[in-house]
Design a protein that fits this description.
This protein has 15 helices and 9 strands. The protein is of the alpha/beta class. The chain has 2 domains: about 180 residues, NAD(P)-binding Rossmann-like Domain (Rossmann fold, 3-Layer(aba) Sandwich); about 100 residues, no CATH class. A 9-stranded mixed beta sheet has the order 1-9-8-7-6-5-2-3-4, sandwiched between helices. The radius of gyration is 22 Å and the shape is globular. The structure holds NADPH dihydro-nicotinamide-adenine-dinucleotide phosphate and magnesium ion (2 copies). NADPH dihydro-nicotinamide-adenine-dinucleotide phosphate (NDP) binds next to α1, α2, α4 and β7. One magnesium ion binds next to α8. This is Ketol-acid reductoisomerase (NADP(+)). Keywords: Amino-acid biosynthesis, Branched-chain amino acid biosynthesis, Isomerase, Magnesium, Metal-binding, NADP, Oxidoreductase. It comes from Methanolacinia petrolearia (strain DSM 11571 / OCM 486 / SEBR 4847) (Methanoplanus petrolearius). Its cofactor is Mg(2+).
Length: about 325
């Protein structure tokens, strides 16, 4: 079984007297940095001038250029977009990554696929919250935490595990649970999850359902409410109590339709596609494609994103949400 750690397994003392530089102040950077600070740790932010830096300053944090922060820090957590970590690391972090420092990530992508190759005389570890940055922050403020994964890629000081656990405690993760994994397992499962199920799978499922109803002549507003709006209600129930709780809450008719029709929608063809997608992740083919896409300024990323932005479901959705009080700011 996988190793699990809780509050009493982690000691913040392992980070006392150490300066933690959080590189990047976006989703994860902001959530993690504010939690670390409120846990009494010494945090600085490495960030280029711009909106994120202004936000860090407004939040009362010390914000420096990445290279300056790397120089000052004992612990360097890289929370920059995955596709630019390699270049920023090479130019602004590597020159200051001296013996006994600790290099940290919240996703194993760059280490696992060899985009960053750290020197042998530092610790290289991962603390990866299993939730977006604003949840990392909000749950911490509520006295709770988002679960996290830890992994050790390279042990040099003999303290890598203690540091990973202390950092996980600092961001509030040990209040939930911390699971120990490897860079490979985290990277491959994270990419698979977001591609096949969470992001790619879900949006494609919703779109296919919407298009089917609209093509058959039903009102787009009805289609939106059925296949998108209600999605959250169902997912919330599954999240709280698994399939069982969800099925206890829906009608018997819905449940019979669920168990007999669902496997026809996600059948052999979809499973084969999932296996192929996983193979492309494992072989590095996906990463190669994504890094090359970035090298040519993202033509497919931009075109496909725009096509979805212009989809009828987004127009209808914006209109309907505009009429619902819970979405009014
Ligand atoms: P974001 O895109 O939200 O934030 C990236 C930050 O990096 C921004 O503050 C941006 O600042 C800054 N930045 C971009 N380019 C540079 C540069 N050249 N020099 C200095 N700063 C720069 O990233 P995420 O928080 O989503 O992701 C960070 C890491 O966390 C990734 O490894 C990701 O895989 C991982 N992760 C993310 C999760 C999530 O829910 N988002 C969940 C778990 C892990 P600016 O405003 O100037 O552009
Ligand atoms: Mg991811
Ligand atoms: Mg219904």
């Amino acid at each position: 079984m996988i190793n699990k750690y809780y509050e009493s397994d982690a000691d913040l003392g392992n980070l006392s007297g150490k300066t933690i530089a959080v590189m990047g102040y976006g989703s994860q950077g902001r959530g993690q940095a504010l939690n670390l600070r409120d846990s009494g740790l010494d945090v600085i932010i490495g960030i280029r001038p711009g909106k994120s830096r202004d936000q860090a300053v407004a939040d009362g944090l010390e914000a420096l250029d990445v290279s300056k922060a790397a120089e000052r820090a004992d612990i360097i957590m890289i929370l920059l977009p995955d596709e630019i970590q390699g270049i920023v690391y090479k130019n602004e972090i590597a020159p200051y990554l001296t013996e006994n420092k600790c290099l940290m990530f919240s996703h194993g992508f760059n280490i696992h696929f060899g985009q960053i190759v750290p020197p042998a005389n530092v610790d290289v570890i991962m603390v990866a919250p299993k939730g977006p940055g604003h949840m990392v922050r909000r749950t911490y403020e509520e006295g709770k935490g988002v679960p996290a994964l830890i992994a050790i890629h390279q042990e040099y000081t003999g303290k890598a595990k203690e540091i990973a656990l202390a950092y996980a405690k600092g961001i509030g993760a040990t209040r939930a649970v911390v699971l120990e994994t490897s860079f490979r397992e985290e990277t491959e499962t994270d990419l698979f999850g977001e591609q096949a199920v969470l992001c790619g799978g879900t949006t494609s499922l919703i779109k296919a359902g919407f298009e089917t109803l609209v093509k058959a002549g039903y009102a787009p507003e009805m289609a939106y409410l059925e296949v998108l709006h209600e999605m959250k209600l169902i997912v919330d129930l599954i999240y709280e109590g698994g399939f069982t709780k969800m099925r206890d809450s829906i009608s018997n008719t819905a449940q019979y339709g669920d168990i007999t029709r669902g496997p026809r929608v996600i059948g052999a063809e979809s499973k084969a596609a999932m296996e192929q997608i996983l193979k492309e992740i494992q072989s590095g083919a996906f990463t190669k494609e994504w890094m090359l896409e970035n090298a040519v300024n993202r033509p497919m990323f931009n075109a496909l994103t725009r096509a979805d932005e212009e989809h009828l479901i987004e127009k209808v959705g914006a209109e309907i949400r505009g009429m619902m009080p819970q979405f009014r700011k």
